[in-house]
Amino acid sequence: MVKANNKFYHQRHFLCSSCNKSLCNEAYQVVDDNLFCINCYNNQCGIKCAFCNQYIDGEYITAMSKNWHPQHFCCTECHEPLGNGIIEEKDGKPYCHKDYQRLFGIKCSKCNEPILSGGYITALEKPWHVDCFVCNVCNEPFSSTSFYELDGMPYCANHYKIATECDYCKSKIMDKRTKVGDKFYHANHVYCTCCKNPVSNLMANENDDITKYFQITGNNVVCKNCVASQAF
């Protein structure tokens, strides 16, 4: 005789309710007074880990409408255990708060870093850290709610005038502008301080970064050829 679940069975009758395998000397589970071998129990009633897809035998964590081995409930990015911390979800995957904000959170339009906590400013239809919403030239905060917009960036009154006027010819800049130090120019009005070649002649593409072709110190521009020859 075999005693199980407060009942007695002939050994020949001590069988899995699903596959009829003998449970003598075997591990088993009881569900609604039915006996199951471990394989049948797992197939019919077992809980699987959402990470490894293996059956869970013991403690588990339920989160995001799924079940997890405790050691498998980790941030998808940094793989640190999430435990009882703040859990963020993206596309069915768990993330710690820090990595979620870094990867998917709101980013500041000036520094491009995530806005992790505290307030932020929405201006020019974009978000900004409070400390980053400053003039694009002098980096000074605005003394009032008034500011000027140019190419999607904010300017104070003084530097808006500078940014829209070529420092070389003093006429308005209506299209592409080139910034050198704290001054702005028409793209064809910036010259190498040494050889006097215009920037527009030395750059392969007018949309390229000027620092690829020139060394800029303050308001001085020196082309890479003059830097190499130490002509300055």
Automatic annotation (TrEMBL):
<dbReference type="GO" id="GO:0046872">
    <property type="term" value="F:metal ion binding"/>
</dbReference>
<keyword id="KW-0440">LIM domain</keyword>
<dbReference type="InterPro" id="IPR001781">
    <property type="entry name" value="Znf_LIM"/>
</dbReference>
<dbReference type="InterPro" id="IPR017351">
    <property type="entry name" value="PINCH-1-4-like"/>
</dbReference>
<dbReference type="Pfam" id="PF00412">
    <property type="entry name" value="LIM"/>
</dbReference>
<feature type="domain" description="LIM zinc-binding">
    <location>
        <begin position="106"/>
        <end position="166"/>
    </location>
</feature>
<protein>
    <submittedName>
        <fullName>LIM-domain-containing protein</fullName>
    </submittedName>
</protein>
<keyword id="KW-0479">Metal-binding</keyword>
<feature type="domain" description="LIM zinc-binding">
    <location>
        <begin position="47"/>
        <end position="105"/>
    </location>
</feature>
<keyword id="KW-0862">Zinc</keyword>
